[in-house]
Amino acid sequence: MYRITLIPGDGIGPEISEATVRVIEATGVRIDWDVQEAGEEVFKKEGTPLPERVIESIRENGVAIKGPVTTPVGKGFRSVNVTLRQTLDLYACLRPCKGFRGARTRYDDIDIVIVRENTEDLYAGIEFPMGKEETAGLIDYIDKTTGKRIREDSGISIKPISVYGTQRIVRFAFEYARKNGRKKVTAVHKANIMKFSDGLFLETAREVASEYGDIEFEDRIIDNMCMQLVQKPELYDVLVLPNLYGDIVSDLGAGLIGGLGLAPGANIGEGIAVFEPTHGSAPKYKGMNRVNPLAMILSGVMMLRYLGESDAAQRVERAVAEVIEEGKSVTYDMKPSPEDPTAVGTREVADAIIARMNA
Ligand code: NAD
């Protein structure tokens, strides 16, 4: 029996979580769910969207699966997702982009794994607002030390990239490649322009790569990478990227396989892992039994693999593939038009997967 933290989240979170729990339970793997609320509702009641007990529960159990959580724009609370990643030092964001036959996409046979650094880069949250005294001080300092003058009416975001942070994410990518029979790791950067941040990332990645003679290594500049992924995605295997490029390329990857409704993910640290879909809480669909639960169910497949339950993972994945290929019991986003009257609801997708698993 595994004890696993379940964070249903808000918006569409609770309904896709319910579908996911039902599918995972249908595998027969026994799980004691430690249900923890986070997000808007808890914020209204307790003044924080992420009570300490949620973090403690994940620390204690070591494994969590979560639905999306809304981040209010410009007010309210900080992103629960970013806070979780930083507090638990979940430094690796793993996003497999695997195509399924029958999904609506322009590409066949996509099988790329994105490994995004989760703690550094422009997401470190070190920012200087336009017009503030500390910003003026920084502008003066930069002027004195580099001779370059930033305009006074500028806001500034800092982009730290360290040897430590890069070593551990690139090692993670190579270890993942090794364990999963992958052939190649591609490091993505803009080292020609940002010599001391992306340049350090590339230099460090090359050093780490030299420890892994059995796996091919190459690098690509981010802009070229985007074009190549659209033109020749079959050339790529595992990609390792600093935080911001990783975020953007993850959505590009979701686009290659047929959309956000199909893109699973995991945030992983030392001995701790939080599985979650790539998409957000889509508030306008809340409670409508309308959205696609597959991204979260496939995050559940990743979780089962992480637990060593490969058989169960494979059974769910196969059932998902069959349901997609048949194309009958799928939600609106997987139909040719969003108004397609034959689209089924969130619950019905889970029913169809469970029926396949038991067939
Ligand atoms: P979103 O992913 O929630 O939704 C964008 C659009 O994608 C939706 O309107 C919908 O048309 C479609 N979509 C998303 N998930 C779908 C699904 N499962 N099935 C079918 N269609 C789906 O992105 P957003 O609108 O930019 O963000 C909404 C909220 O979610 C924001 O508050 C944001 O901060 C938050 N968010 C949370 C996470 C997370 O919890 N990890 C990640 C991203 C965004």
Overview of the structural elements:
The chain has 359 residues and is of the alpha/beta class. It folds into three domains: 1-101 and 258-359, Isopropylmalate Dehydrogenase, CATH 3.40.718; 121-160, no CATH class; 163-256, 3-Layer(aba) Sandwich (Rossmann fold), CATH 3.40.50.2300. Helices cover 42% and strands 16% of the residues. It has twelve helices and twelve strands. The protein has helices at residues 13-25, 40-46, 52-61, 80-87, 133-146, 163-179, 198-209, 222-231, 243-257, 294-306, 310-326, 346-358, and strands at 2-7, 31-35, 63-66, 92-98, 111-117, 127-128, 156-157, 184-189, 216-221, 238-241, 266-269, 272-275. It has a ten-stranded mixed beta sheet with strand order 2-1-3-12-11-4-5-10-8-9, with helices on both faces. β11 and β12 (272-275) form a beta hairpin. α1 (13-25) runs parallel beside α12, α6 crosses α7 and α10 (294-306) packs antiparallel against α11 (310-326). 43% of the residues are buried. The model has no long low-confidence stretch (mean pLDDT 95). Nicotinamide-adenine-dinucleotide is lined by residues 68-71, 81, 260-261, 276, 279-282, 284, 291-292, 295, 333.
